[in-house]
Specification:
Elements (H helix, E strand, L loop, with lengths): L2 H10 L10 E5 L3 H7 L4 H22 L3 E8 L7 H21 L6 E5 L7 H14 L6 E8 L1 H17 L10 H5 L12 E5 L17 E5 L8 H13 L8
Parallel strand pairs: 1-2, 1-5, 2-4, 3-4, 5-6
Helix pairs in contact: 1-8, 2-3, 3-4, 4-5
């Protein structure tokens, strides 16, 4: 049992339920700085971060989180040095090949959010295969944000809505907040209750802008490869103590 759940059981009494977020978002930040601190190439940091991603994902599934969205590669990350981007693409391919079996026993449903058409053909094929082979599972939904940017997501959603209006499928007067939500990559999923950003940076970095209108944020001064289950427990404990009013009193 985790430290968080042990403490909560003592505080609230045996049998009392623990308040868990239904949907967690994680900005997996700090891989490059982790490597630099150790005199290693940035690619080593990304490899360590990918290994930790597996650990934290499986832990979220084990404790009962229903949706997990991880920020793996943003639309802005293409600006990084070519050798780093190339190493990341190789790492993604390696991960996806492993993911075809990695999360099978955990019944994790794997989805990808972002503009995947920018990736190589073999990587796109792996993405499609991973989604297809996991779609009938009944466990936690894992959203992997790859070539994802929330502004780009909103532009794409706006174009979809405009096309529906143009084709007479939708009236302008009928456009609501739900209409926007239903045309995002995360359509029909609950908005994130909690977003965690390791690395100590105080930025949202173009991540789930629409969806995070009433999300609780926890910033942790810990680089992603060093982020542990206990760190996640601490973030959950902070979340459990928050008073979420959603604009009310």
């Amino acid at each position: 049992m985790s430290l968080f759940f042990s403490r909560r059981k003592k505080e609230r009494g045996k049998g009392d339920s623990v308040v868990l977020p239904q949907h967690i978002g994680i900005i997996m930040d700090g891989n490059g700085r982790w490597a630099k601190k150790r005199g290693l190439p940035r690619s080593a940091g990304h490899t360590a971060g990918a290994q930790n991603f597996r650990t934290i994902t499986r832990y979220c599934s084990d404790i009962g989180i229903k949706y997990l969205t991880v920020y793996a590669f943003s639309t802005e990350n293409w600006k990084r040095p070519a050798d780093e981007v190339s190493a990341l693409m190789t790492l993604f391919k390696q991960y996806l090949n492993e993911a075809l079996t990695d999360f099978k026993d955990d019944s994790i449903v794997v989805r990808f959010i972002g503009e995947t058409s920018a990736f190589s053909e073999d990587l796109r094929e792996l993405i499609i295969r991973t989604e297809e082979e996991s779609k009938h599972r009944n466990g936690m939904v894992l959203n992997i944000a790859m070539n994802y940017g929330s502004r780009d997501e909103l532009v794409t959603a706006t174009k979809k809505i405009a096309e529906k209006v143009k084709n007479g499928e939708l009236s302008v007067d009928d456009i609501t907040e739900d209409t926007v939500s239903d045309n995002l990559y995360t359509a029909h999923q609950p908005d994130p209750d909690l977003i965690i950003r390791p690395s100590g940076e105080y930025r949202i970095s173009n991540f789930l802008l629409w969806q995070s209108a009433y999300t609780e944020f926890v910033i942790m001064d810990k680089l992603w490869p060093d982020f542990t289950k206990d760190d996640l427990d601490m973030a959950l404990e902070i979340f459990a103590k928050r008073n979420r009013r959603f604009g009310g009193i």
